Batch of 4 targets.
Target 1
Amino acid sequence: MNIRADLREIARQLDLIGFDVGDYRVSVYRALIMLAVGIVVVIAGRVMTALVRRSFRRISRLDATQQLLGEKLVSIAVWVGLVLAGVDFLGISLTALTVFSGAFGLAVGFGLQKTFGNLISGIILLMDRSIKPGDVIAVGSGSDKTVGQVNKIGIRAVSVTTRDRIEFLIPNELLMTSQVENWSFSSRDVRVKVPVGVAYGSDIEKVEKVLLEAALSLKRVLNRNPPQVWLHGFGSNAIEFEVQMWIDDPEEGLGNLRSDLLKAVWKAFVANGIEVPYAQHDVHIREWPKELAEIARIAESQAPEAIEKSGANDLGIKPKPKAKARKGKLN
């Protein structure tokens, strides 16, 4: 009894330290009560959301997207209910908050607009199932394109992990308003194109056969969609082919697949005697400059043997014939 009496006395003394706002008392005691209720609400919310998450993951008849959508909706309802219960426990009348409704609405309109926009966008993404956890998506264009696997769809942003193990947090609203490539929306099959050039004079049928064998030797290439080789064009230095392959695991990356194919093609070309072209240009000189011709003439008169060794004929200069030695005596 003494302990209860002491606690009541301490509460009464703490309640004296404060002031009144209309019919509501603001004191140190009520501030401590509000702090304790807030802590209880946060702890209870986290525990209940964890239980909700675990419960939805046990429902096997729902796919990953439906489980995540149900988890988000129930979690929001749990948090709203706990906050309202805490307000009711503290004895705060909701009608008293009407004074602050205008300021709160203004704050929502300016400060929390993006937050609520991302929240609604995340729920819409989960409802229409346009983007699901595990999908491989590409956001942006050109050099700014981000390609990765969707790891998590949160309340504010979508977590996308790239092949470099870099995790991007893309706002949900951005995914709703911008163009997004979903490589696994209706099917996980993705076609990969790899250009290959061979030297002119190569046997086209042989090249096609070698490229097909190199593509089929890769484990990730699908057999149900066999690879194809197309003659793409006649370039300035090479006959251009294009190897088209189908895979069903784009999250494993595309650059490593291109690398494996090119290494297999290189080994096959070496084994079959197929040449890989290199850049070359034919230069035709219609007339040598006068200054160069004069220099060549002077060099020829001073050192004809050096001109012959350096290829004077390429400059259009004919070396003078050597004088033949005469037999006989000099007069």
Target 2
Amino acid sequence: MLVKSRPPVSSLLLGVGRRSLDNFRDTMQIAKSRLATRPARYPNVLWSVWVLVWVLLTAAAFVRLDTPAGMLHGKWSAGFARTADFFTQFGLGGWYLIPSVLLLVAANLTDWRSLSRRSLMLLYNWTCLAFLVLCATGLSGIAVNVLKYAIGRARPLYYEDFGVLTLHPFAFDARFAGFPSGHGTTMGAVFGVALLLFPRRWYIALAITACIASTRIFVGAHYPSDTVAGFGLGCGFALACGLVFARLGFIFRPMPSGLPVRKKTFRLIAPTRKAAWAFEVQLPSSPP
């Protein structure tokens, strides 16, 4: 009786590695070709209005709320403080970065060519979403960490020692890493992604993300102006990423003015046959 021998593990790993590299190269080739053939004409978004509102809200929070927040630190009820401490954990970037990275790695190791059109579309949409979340939260996270250590504002935990506005630029000390809020930036990026994907439900996304961001005030990690500044920064990064994605044809379609609009073919559940056939890949033999 003949027994088929299995290929050695080294051969399997080599095959997976080659497939991963091929998938990466194909994806980069498609992105480069789309950037080369589609002019950099982004829609007329009223960025000046967005920035003005962001600056005014941050300034208003600084003038009216920062000092009371510093004085109230440590005076919240124990139950309220525990609740805030629990929900503030959902503002950590890892909740959004790690699943996105894992999904991208899994997609990169998948044999795209063996998938049916419907499965290909589903995996493509999830991959694009993971990449959008990764870009929005990752890039804004890098920016906010550079800013907070460059500015060096003292946290409200040390209000009694340093007051509401003490700056130690480039101190690289966690005590002086208050402005802007990193958690607030992450929540702003999440809100921006939700705003792009579900524009009609923006108020729900705003309520949830703003509440999570505000917990940084109650745990004494940030002043209100820190949180508002971070939230606006993260939202701005998310919207900018959405505009680039629309140019590439990922998830969104560009508009003459305003924010990009989600494509009808973007579905995160099994697509209908009609939607699957409407889905077109740039290169039939390559991942989209």
Target 3
Amino acid sequence: MFVLVGSMLTGCAGAPTESAGKGATAAGFPVEATSCGHVSTVKAPPQAAITLNQGATEVALALGLEQRLAGTAYLDDAIAPRFAGAYAKVKVLAAEYPSHEAVLAEEPDFVYGSYASAFADESAGTREELQGLGIGSYLSPFGCPDARDRAEVGFESVWQEIHAVADVFGVPERAARIESDQRATVEELAEVGAGRGTRVFWYDSGDKTALAGAGEGGPQVILDAVGATNVFGGLDGGWADVSWERVVKAEPDVIVVADASWSSAAEKIAHLRKDPVLKRLRAVRDDRFITVAYSESTPGVRLVDGAQQVSDRLIALGRP
């Protein structure tokens, strides 16, 4: 669970401006940012933050915080085109995680990560260690190391994270605009219902077995949003290893293929088309594939983009 405690609430007047510097007194501060059981007291809007993992980076960019970032690291796939210009202005510290020393060299005042691994000793350092150095931190509630602390994946919890980060940076009105725009998109997708009557297999990665989108993660949220049926939606967790025999038995109408730097959509589609059994699946035979960027299938500011992409492609493919 995560909460923000302070006198500043979303949409309140007197939010600090971009010109507020380090150590400046800002209306509504200090703010206590709590995530995954850790509390960071933020005395003023961060001006030299570091984002680790693509989800955190794109939330920051969606909030227009690129001028407040001292560095960033660790992408899963390509930055969304609408964020590319802003991303180009931010220093990339490493292809994956920078070392603790590399993080400290940038003299950050805040570190924001999507996964608990961002705060390992060999990366940014523990949140307690950073706190001892006067550096605030925030870990996405979807990445808490203790499962009991993790937020349930959904659009509402994504918006809550965006609001929490916006409050830390003193820009609550920007989070409100993002939520309003995305909520309107979700409502429109539900009305269109492009996936009604369509059974979908969400193929994330794997060749010996398939890592499939299960019933409690981003893929399920997206498929629910478009009205489609997840053939493995009855499995626990966000992702589940399933045998190819189960995929064949499920005979999906459409296969959604995740595109990530470590497992491209092209590689997975080639595997399905080459396998003597899998190539007989109706969805493979009829080329009923939908490619979705991995970053649009995980809880974050682009989860709505993933739902829109799936909806658009389902409409283009037509009913099964």
Target 4
Amino acid sequence: MAVTQKELAFMREAFPFWNQLTQRQQNLLEQSVSVSSYRKGQRLHDGAQDCMGLILVLSGHLRAFILSDTGKEITIYRLFERDICIFSASCMLKNISFDIYIEAAEDSRILLIPTAVYNELNQTCLAVSNFTSQLISSRFSDVMWVMEQVLFMSFDRRLANFLLEQSAIAGSSTFSITHETIAKNMGSAREVVTRMLKYFQSEGMVSLSRGGITITDPKKLEKLLRFDK
């Protein structure tokens, strides 16, 4: 699919190093970038062996997740408009290999910089190299935060945090999501999620409907986050 001038302008604004590239490097980027659209639930990236390139989100919402040996998924970070994913080009990163999977959490559109092109810029332009290091550091922080949650935070607190996060993403106290989807994001079992949601409902924190949840008392959920049981 051809990249429009508007999308090229979006890319120039999204990359803080753009003005520090040479004219040849700018031309290389503009000529190599491609655009793709993905439907909700469609997989973009399949682990360390899939080195597709640098992803820049034009619109929509992507989620990056890891898989356990038993097939359970845990979401480690999310990508929204103007966000950039470096681990989709992980083969260019020496001694770093992650089986990170990326799928569209809603209908999404992305710009893709081929790995070879971005790697050349990363090796020849200090501004790009510095940006790459900052991006890797930021994503590692996201991963560590999730791991700390999984290892040290009780499930009720994790679920409360997840619901508040989903509400913020939706921009509403009511949002559509299934118990199965929550379980996939949190690396848990659907039955565990259902049991805790019913407890939250009995405590007046949420109201459950078929395929949807309404946060009825966000302050109670926020209070739950401040005190581990």
